[in-house]
Amino acid sequence: MSRNLSITFGLLLVLALAFGVFAIVRSVNGSGPAEAERVSAETLVNDDSHYLDEVEGADVTVVEFLDFECPACGQMYPVMEDVREKYEGDVNFVVRYFPLPGHVNAEASAAAAEAAARQDSFEEMYQKLFETQEEWSGASEPTPEVFVDYAEEIGLDRDQFVEDMNDPAILERINADLPDGQEAGVQGTPTIFVNGRLMSSMPSEKQLSSVIDEELEAAQEKAAEEGEGEQ
């Protein structure tokens, strides 16, 4: 084999390896084809799961397992709000609880959200908790009274809220999300799925939008093919 031919083969090998690395990076970042097995919708969404946005007939569902005290979830919050606004009326957004043991107020804040849900104000409390996270996170012991004040601020019945927060069924409801998260492979928060596709940790708005657009496009193509088949 000549020297020139050896160099050519060497360059081709380098290019092939580079392409392979690029493809892997794209997949990890959530911007390439979904090669990994998807988590089933039955695992990710239950009948009592909380929807921030629920669109009848939506082709895409985004699910986030979160801990309200988690700093990374707090950083993810404005990104998720931007994505929700961008796809309003087209995409479902679902929240699942996954309180982490290292956060003192993880369960108390989730209980606040669940108690607010009993007064049809889950989204309002969800937003309030993240917007005020720096005020109550990192405490040495649970501070449920802070969440009671928040409940009043968003217009909830104080006595009913306190009663609901102390209801053992609330904690059972929160912990009921944990087995689904574990089955889905959740190990930390935030963990986000788009139609069962696991996103990379802390995806950007661009990465999330890219995968959502892929799923919307795939659904449109499938609908078009089915329409042609019926003709």
From TrEMBL:
SUPFAM superfamilies: Thioredoxin-like. The keyword rRNA processing does not apply. Keywords: Disulfide bond, Oxidoreductase, Redox-active center, Signal. Residues 30-217 form the Thioredoxin domain. PANTHER family: DISULFIDE BOND FORMATION PROTEIN D (PTHR13887:SF14), GLUTATHIONE S-TRANSFERASE KAPPA (PTHR13887). Belongs to the thioredoxin family. DsbA subfamily. This is Thioredoxin domain-containing protein. It comes from Nocardiopsis endophytica. The lineage of its organism: Bacteria, Bacillati, Actinomycetota, Actinomycetes, Streptosporangiales.
